[in-house]
């Protein structure tokens, strides 16, 4: 009889342990699911930030501040406040000094810039100040350099064509190539006929042997990517003008060789 009671008691204990273990497993699963749900909600939550923009008065060719702001707003962010100052204002000058800003337009971002769903974006395009504030300065021209007190990156393009060559390509296509491939901002353009008085001057001055051709002047050297490859397609003259000379490297385009007077066409395979 005593044995039966012990067996019954042992059975209850075993059942209790089984139920308790099952409850602990279930509880652990619930906690795990709850933790995962909380993490997912936190990851999905927009980063709360405050942004302040600083621009330069009169720099119409400068990087559009709205391009930077739109990039930020396209991220999972919640803008709690937004201000904009010019660099010549008291507030803009103080912020430039505090955060060691060297070029504008610039965007200052405070708040949850380290949040997981925005961290990579801000690390790519901005730099951290000592207090954790993020500074987004333009990495490519055109911008206003505060130390030099001047606009950096304005470039003029002069295209030279030959009206007698109706088959020759349109030299203005170079503007889009320069913009899309090298980030060059052309702020002034001019197209000349090589047979005009001004066109003849340029052809003679720069010893141009092929048409169409184009010249770049202004702050060309601020575009590092273009400068690195320019020697493959042209020359830099003593007056600083960049002269394009290698039409043969433009696949599939027709041009005129002035030294022979012939029209050069791309080779075709039959």
What's the arrangement of secondary structure elements?
Layout lengths: L1 H43 L2 E9 L9 H9 L3 E10 L3 H9 L4 E2 L1 E6 L7 H7 L1 E2 L5 E3 L6 E3 L4 E3 L2 E7 L11 H10 L3 E8 L3 H9 L4 E2 L1 E6 L5 H7 L3 E3 L5 E3 L10 E3 L4 E3 L6
Parallel strand pairs: 1-2, 9-10
Antiparallel strand pairs: 1-4, 3-7, 4-6, 5-6, 7-8, 9-12, 11-15, 12-14, 13-14, 15-16
Features:
single chain, 270 residues, alpha+beta, Glutaredoxin, 3 domains, 5-stranded mixed beta sheet, 7 helices, elongated
- What fraction, in percent, of the residue positions are helical? 25-40%
What radius of gyration results from the CA coordinates? 33 Å
Work out the number of β strands: 16
Strands ordered across the widest β-sheet: 2-1-4-6-5
Structural notes for this entry:
The chain is 35% helix and 27% strand. The chain has seven helices and 16 strands. The strands form four sheets. The chain has a five-stranded mixed sheet with strand order 2-1-4-6-5. A five-stranded mixed sheet has the order 10-9-12-14-13, with helices on both faces. The longest helix is centred in the first third of the chain and has 43 residues. The termini are far apart. The model has no long low-confidence stretch (mean pLDDT 88).
